[in-house]
Amino acid sequence: xxxxxxxxxxxxxxxxxxxxxxxxxxxxxxxxxxxxxxxxxxxxxxxxxxxxxxxxxxxxxxxxxxxxxxxxxxxxxxxxxxxxxxxxxxxxxxxxxxxxxxxxxxxxxxxxxxxxxxxxxxxxxxxxxxxxxxxxxxxxxxxxxxxxxxxxxxxxxxxxxxxxxxxxxxxxxxxxxxxxxxxxxxxxxxxxxxxxxxxxxxxxxxxxxxxxxxxxxxxxxxxxxxxxxxxxxxxxxxxxxxxxxxxxxxxxxxxxxxxxxxxxxxxxxxxxxxxxxxxxxxxxxxxxxxxxxxxxxxxxxxxxxxxxxxxxxxxxxxxxxxxxxxxxxxxxxxxxxxxxxxxxxxxxxxxxxxxxxxxxxxxxxxxxxxxxxxxxxxxxxxxxxxxxxxxxxxxxxxxxxxxxxxxxxxxxxxxxxxxxxxxxxxxxxxxxxxxxxxxxxxxxxxxxxxxxxxxxxxxxxxxxxxxxxxxxxxxxxxxxxxxxxxxxxxxxxxxxxxxxxxxxxxxxxxxxxxxxxxxxxxxxxxxxxxxxxxxxxxxxxxxxxxxxxxxxxxxxxxxxxxxxxxxxxxxxxxxxxxxxxxxxxxxxxxxxxxxxxxxxxxxxxxxxxxxxxxxxxxxxxxxxxxxxxxxxxxxxxxxxxxxxxxxxxxxxxxxxxxxxxxxxxxxxxxxxxxxxxxxxxxxxxxxxxxxxxxxxxxxxxxxxxxxxxxxxxxxxxxxxxxx
Length: 723
What we know:
- By secondary structure, the chain is α+β, with helices and mostly antiparallel strands.
- The chain is built from 26 helices and 21 strands.
């Protein structure tokens, strides 16, 4: 009897262990942002999905995928049959900022269109809906089958891609075709997108809710940010895409998401659909070294300095606060992201891990004469090319960023280009320099020169010149260093260069734009001459970089094939802003020794943080609602409060901002907006130990919309019984 009892107990223990191990296995989703073509190959039901996977993506019919939109580089989703879209507040930030004035400061106070007639244009925003996709790899690669020169090869690939995009686009029916490279030099997919140009703001919470925690909490958990905004897509009465017009009507999507106002709990299965930005997981250790030594630290430090300048100029001016808000937000988002990436590379010893993996790959290649002949030179080739890339790295990023962020460099550059084009016969000019378009270019240059932001532009220019003076070797900016003189004083140089640069009639651009194009090109003004030399540097560096890219395209094609042979598996392609699916679970994590973060935050935490002031200030009405415990149907029985943010172990990247968080039944339970600081490394590597994404809980979205915003009508439109 004792033996039988022992045997029974062992069976029970074994059974429990099997169940435990199975549960553990299910709780660890595979790394991957799966493209549409791979969704049918994932065991979503085994992972926890409670609906037919065909309801997620059905290439022959309507599915959840049809509710997704790409909105301004972010993701959004339709949540009603009348074109209502939910996305992030930070994705709509620029549109809200553009619509704001000191009299109607929608950014600070929020915006609510009480009727359709009061919805306002989200200027500069359009939405794109993925209509279909097609593998065009054979068509693309056929044109370079016998081409060995890497530069010629990439030029021919670019040409065939441009041809395919032009032939497959249908302007009349608002269809835009885009070919995306899935595996470098190997796989090309043509996507067709329906474009909607009339997008309007419907409801945006005030900044103290939509950006609660500001930069202090950006990329940080625990999080308490109401990062959401509602917009609406409009089309012409006949259903075609049209620019803003009073005659336009709300767009009727093929599919819209159902909202689950009860939300989710810890350990629940969730999945995300969206347009993640670029990841680089199939790159080499040489790529990571370049990131860690050149790109990440230089841009992070540069952006930190530019932010300091803008914040200094904003301290005492509400006008400047509005003027610079979007710029500061974008710069700060990248600056902190890059700091997180550098921390992740260092903490995970990622470069060393990549090198160790590559040593194993080398051994595999060298174990076969055939493989050695085909792949044996890959690593020497990678090292040679990345050495060239490292040598020009600082000059590349300086010219790329300097000509974008310095208005002085940017507009003198445009003036020189204008003069060069206008000196040509009209039939030889680029289209933007013909007829009335050319007049428009000239008018914009004159307007900028007459009213440019002197304080900001002088300080930005000084920063870029000071940086340029420090570069050496193949990154040396001789246009700057040759002008420094024996004292090597950049302040003296900057003062000399800017002596003819001030707003109004005396500005050198204003003066030169009154002259003939050939006279502009002959100008001996020192600042214009400097920019002319910098343009030559930029062109030279760009040509070198294009050659490097062409060489890497060919090398990485072989690198990927070698890894596939070694691993004996197919890979999920790196994210590239095409529609993807990722799945996981509502799950906390431990970012450091003796620290554990649970995966749900609540309104209680908002109030606790509010006493810190600064980035944590809240509107008084929010505090009143909290003190009255006016939670309505959105009170969580587990916490007794309103859930605010969620943490989950899905695989996401930048373009997933605004992505819908969907429960096991495909219902909307949140809106993704960020990653934890440790997960900024996701672009290079994913791991369940540290990769966590952050979203705003749908219950907080609905509670703010109804109780704070008074926009009950939106809940009704989404089919929510809000009594």
